[in-house]
């Protein structure tokens, strides 16, 4: 339901905010804004392979922390949390864009 999606988004944004600034920026540019790693590398002056490791490290951290926090906060069965997280990851860019006011909410 929409409340769970908003709650999951809040947890994700909180976890993103706890990341080092560089990791957060690289993750945002690549995953949320959709820039290629080569484009991000040109912007930040780092090698593509270094940025790839950064993105994978952030995904792994979020992949562990977000489901754990959701399960604790929602007191939901792990299968339900896994389904919610999978759906959330599939719509991450759109969800964050909506939360930040970059895209209209559906009617």
Class from helix and strand fractions: mainly alpha
Helix content: over 70%
Low-confidence segments = 99-107
End-to-end Cα distance, whole Å, is 16 Å
Count all strands and give the number: 0
Silhouette? elongated
Architecture overview:
By secondary structure, this protein is mostly helical. Helices cover 79% and strands 0% of the residues. The chain is built from six helices and no strands. Helix 2 packs across helix 4, helix 3 (37-44) crosses helix 4 and helix 4 crosses helix 5. The two termini are 16 Å apart. Residues 99-107 have low confidence and may be disordered.
Provide a concise account of the structure shown.
The protein has six helices and no strands.
Sequence-ordered SSE layout with sheet pairings:
Elements (H helix, E strand, L loop, with lengths): L1 H16 L3 H12 L4 H8 L3 H27 L3 H13 L1 H8 L8
Give keywords.
6 helices; 107 residues; 0% strand
